[in-house]
Structure prediction request, 717 residues.
Amino acid sequence: MGDNKQQAVQTSNRKGRLWIFAILFLVLLLVVALNLTLGSVRIPLKDILGTILGSPGIKDSWVYIVRSYRLPKIVTAILAGIALSASGLQMQTMFRNPLADPFILGINSGASLGVAIAIMGSTMVGGMFLPAVSSFGELGIVLAASVGSGIVMALILLAGRMVKSPTTLLILGLMFGTATGALVSLLIYFSSPEKVKAYSVWSYGAFNGVTWQQLKVMAPVIVFAIGILAFLPKGLNAMLLSEDYAKTMGLNTKRMRVLILLSASILTGTVTAFCGPIGFIGVAVPHIARNLFKTSNHKILIPAVIVIGAIVAVAADLLAQMPGSQLVLPINVVTSLFGAPFVLWVVLKQKRGGTSFNV
Amino acid sequence: MGGVEAEARWNIIQRVKRVLHTEKLEIGYENGKPARKVISRGLNLELRQGEFVCLVGPNGAGKSTLLRTLTGLLPALSGEINLDDNPISSYSRKELAHQLSVVLTTPIEVGAMTVRELVSMGRFPYTGLFDRMSDHDWQVVDEALEMVGIKDFGGRMVHKLSDGERQRVMIARALAQEPQVMVLDEPTAYLDLPGRVAVMSLLHELARDHGKTILTSTHDLDQALRIADKLWVMSLNGEISSGAPEDLALSGEFQRVFAGERVQFDAVQGHFSLKEENEGVALLEGEGLARLWTERALKRLGYRVDLDYQGKDEPLRVAVFDGGDGLHWLIATEDGHEAFASLGEMADYIKKNRVLKT
Prediction:
């Protein structure tokens, strides 16, 4: 009797989850379609497919806008949303802290410093050691951003072993962020105006401006890092209990930590390199996923944050274009306007000041 | 056939199989301040199959360090821990997880997870890279739930359980690992009294009826004395004496280890009680329940009630009687007596006089 009931509960859960996934895919399609039609030039929804496929009778300007501007931008947004959310999820579990995310823990700042050194460092060291951005190339920026984020993440990880309180860890992250920010300011102070401009445009954050050519680098790198994550749900679940429990369940926690570090910093580094530092998606999406699916099980959460992350990023880009106006806001403005209150809400919702992942 | 089974059962009852033993084990910390802190050395401990062993000792004796070392969470400073007569260093983490599982003190903080999901984590050492659960795995999970008496809890959310229920879930998770040995660090620390009794009797049952070998540390000495097959008594200097609870009580081991704390072991009653200050002897007149509780009040105040006292010092003379309108107490004084209508008033008078005397 009890068994049957439990079985029934379980199948109904599975059905419910499939439904939620189906609805999420529809929502993703919807925001992608809206993003394709809306913007400074409105292209009717019925003509979008024709534009992409290159059917006869479609305006050339539309074809250009959709193929070389809107499509790469949407693909970038989807990749960035997936990458940031997935990296946020891993870090929340590893730090056992619902507020951990690349932005809040200062890992983005590490990436920023890496990129700042790559773009502007050549001025400081007289172009001797670091080639300028033009000769450095996209891969170079990705590398610089990944190394920068990797270093900060390793530092946070080290500190995290000594301090257990999540609040202290957040303050540490803030300090790392401030310190790297100061170094970036120093670089800016000594750099030529055009390089400073290049850096500051980058730092506003944007999904547009990434070309198909650059996507050929960005997409495989992100797919690779998500590929690592695909092997981790079991270990991440075990680490939910605690690292000690995970060890006594036979998990190699050291290797686990290295893999998470690798995957999360590649994901954060790549997105930051191509799109600039984009805040709050990483912290918010895992919470939305946990609330929606009522589970902490990473076998469900990983695909969930992938879909929701894509939706949130494409929707944020949609809002950034301020439909109906010619104005385009930096992505960071939108994510921060919505993200900061969200983080506040998470903090206030926490009972007993614990580190609980309760929904 | 039946003979073999009976023999196997007898072997478990006899606890002949040595599951875990240590040889000259030295435990403590390295790389701390000071660089090397030894908590205990030369430990030769032994766990036999189906045994329920309680590790007791004053705070700070190093109980958790010992348990962490035995479970491989902390490296031993020197010496050997053997599982089935093989050193645990020869086991991989996964192999060890097949033999040994734990329940830790720190309450877990996972929220959105069902009881069944959490208990299914116990199958991790058996499932593959992607954690696909077979029918057999689920069967083990359900058996574990049944063994700890929460069969119908499977679909409930972990964060909505009471502390006691959650501890049962953690024990079920440890059982789902199908270990030979289960090690628990203060599993009753966060529980209320009924919860503590329930968890301890559950552990006792698991050892007695399911042949599990169970080692748990506990602060609950009364319970440990009553229920454990064997006690490991760890003293502040790191020495551990092991034996049946009754033997340790008789040999005075308890009194020695817990000496100096504010409790003392009452070898007659078999439990710990407040250490009595010795205020002298009391002579008590009275009968029945009234006498019994008056005696307890006097004991609490530090008096030994003696029936045929022959000493020189003047004893405290107390009488209790029913005056028709309820109980009355009398205490003899130099010039007559003082009367009280309750034991509380009497106690206040005794305490006041004691202060005046000094």
Observations:
- The mean pLDDT of chain A is 80.
- The two ends of chain A are 29 Å apart (CA to CA).
